Amino acid sequence: MLILANVRERWSGFLAAFLAVLIGVALITTTLIIYDSARPGPQPRLAAATALAVPEQAVDRDGTPRDRVPWSRREARPLLDELAAVPGVASVTVDRSFYAQALTHGEPVEDEGALEAGHGWSSARLAPYGLVTGRAPAAAHEIVVDRALGVATGTELTVNITAGRAEFRVVGTVNGPGYYFTDDFAARQEPGVGAIAIIADKGVSAADITAKAESVVGDRGTVLSGDGRSALQPAHVEHQRFLGTQLIGALAALALFTTVFVVASMLVLATGLRRREIGLLRTIGAAPHQIRRMILGEAGLIGLLGSLAGCLAGVGTAPLLRDILQGLGVTPPEPGLRVALWPLLTATAIGVGVGVLGALAAGRTAVRVAPIEALLDKGANSRTISRPRRIGGLTALGLGALLTVATAAVRADTRINTAILATMALVVAAALLAPLCVGPVGRALTSPFARLGSAAPLLVRAELRADSRRAASLAAPVTAAVGFAVLLSGMNETMRVAYPAGEALKLTGQVIVTPDGTPGNTDEVVAANPVGRAALPTRAFVRDKDGTLTVIDALGSRDPRWNRPGRAVLGRKTADLLGVKAGDEHTVRFADGATVRLRIGQVLPDDPARGDFVLPRQLVRAHDPSALTDDIFVPAASRPESAVPGTAVHDAVRHALDDYATDARLTDTLTAMLIAVAVGYSGIAMANSMAMTAHGRRRDLAVMKSAGGTVRQLLLFAAAETSLVVTVGAALGLLVPLGPLAGMASGLSQATSTEVGPHLNPLTIAAVILGSLALATASSVVVTWRTLRRENRPTRR
């Protein structure tokens, strides 16, 4: 009952913590709903397949399951016959996907899924699509297309395939995406068998068919059914899902940290302002554990109420976040929204946990003070900083320093997360250790004004000396807001300079032929640019030195140094993985399921530009007919006079900028979203902190007013003190992320082979600092003015 009464009577003091939990839970709820809604499901194109038989799965260098090892035609034929003979199976179909993309008016039709848009006609029976007009293809030059393409039956259509542009006669249209060729044509484009679709007779259960198919397939592969069929996803969908997961994961992590940070600082400050009340409870017999239980109960109740409101807000804002992600192109096509129970329960549990976790420090602070001491009028702090707080601050500082050093050494894909974690640790350290520097810094800043003889600087200096921990609590939200704004905007600016500069340096003296509206360069493009590096990527399946089947990214090269029949050139790490040396032989399995015995021609130092597993280009093309060539790097003296449709020619700088443009767009948006979260939370904390402090000092204001202080002077005093606290917090916020930024710049220097220093975004930093100053000052002045006005009202008799 006491907990409920306290929350009801002191609701304004708990408002900021409630809002922080509400916003945090809303963000977490929204991100979990988006994540749950974006989980892979069976492709619509395979909806009619009762089950899918797929080959065994290889692992990558880190041991993570990755690509499946295609069956060869010879291996797939008996398997097809055996599956077709299973009772209850109506038909079996080899499903193939390869590159196909129409060109209209000489330009490729925009299609994110073009890399896997081509199929054999037999695959059409697996989809809920049907012929709208015309008939099925019967010859190699015939094709069936999506009616949305707007091409009439009987007309000629230019289609880009791996070999290049080719003319096909449209003999039919279907009411779904894709290009459908004859099965023989599809088998030539994609000879390896990656999936066999099983269609059951009517009335036969999927579970029965799946069980029988598993007994037939045995250890030759796996049978997928139901939601398990979602394992087969187009590459572009998987990439979009990965990017979206990274973005919402970073958003949720920052929201969680900031929520805990803000709630903890708010509850500590609120508890400090209730010292007399808590002291009275202790005086009448309340035990320390009862006080702690009361504070934790209040926080738990606030967390529960904020979580319930946050869940409702999160459900309402989920469509907005989905639309933002769709606009960035980081969600699967046509993502729906489903609101399951687990995201709501998870977010609620996090909200309540955050409230209780944030109250732990407040509870420890409350029970440390003796009853009679809490009833005295002296400041809250007998010591500037307690021993546990000092230990915690130094521990966070040490952890932040270690993470700062690690930022320069970790892999590129984890560098950003490491820098964020380092800044989080340093922000916590700054908040815990701030009382040690708030007083000295404040006295140093007010020293010039104190010599003028004005009372305001003396009062501000006295306040900072008397209660430096309160000032540190007020500065903490500013430190967090400015710190994350500096880090996130600085990371963005540093990467914007580093990556294009490093790429341009590598490509000096070259022009680059890049795909323009297509997923890669065809053989027609390669033939039109006979000079320069034209890497043809493929998947190579090998046994490592422990016998584990591993998939490696291999490159087919036309460079005379590496283009040797029957030979492979390996980087040192790959040679160590396979346990081979120059002169050894090793068996390689290709995308068509064929195995080839190759001699290791050379083992060279690792070089990303060359590749870790280099093969003759003709060998790769023979075993992977559907592979597309990467960017072609041509000496500037051999610059092509014209570009093949679907390509563009850039110089080194233009290529570097364009190559980074997509990443820059994503990082710009991520930066803006994360800064908005950090600054928004901190704004709530600042406004509430200033309001609570001003309200809690109403007796002090009354004394100063009775001593002759005018309303104008008291408002100026409140504004000056707040401005000083914000300045100290902003200074700490500027210092905190410099180490992680420097570590990140050092790592980028190594990765790009260019001299990169930390870069800041002055406009963003200035906007955050000025916004924090305006918000905090306005809150303090408004509450001080209202408090003075309330004190001036005549007492009713």
Automatic annotation (TrEMBL):
It is a multi-pass membrane protein. Keywords: Cell membrane, Membrane, Transmembrane, Transmembrane helix. Pfam families: FtsX (PF02687). Its main location: membrane. The chain crosses the membrane at residues 12-35, 247-273, 294-321, 341-362, 391-410, 416-438, 471-491, 670-693, 714-736, 763-788. It is found in: Cell membrane. Residues 251-369, 673-790 form the ABC3 transporter permease C-terminal domain. The keyword Disulfide bond does not apply. It comes from the Bacteria. Belongs to the ABC-4 integral membrane protein family. LolC/E subfamily. This is FtsX-like permease family protein. It comes from Streptomyces amakusaensis.
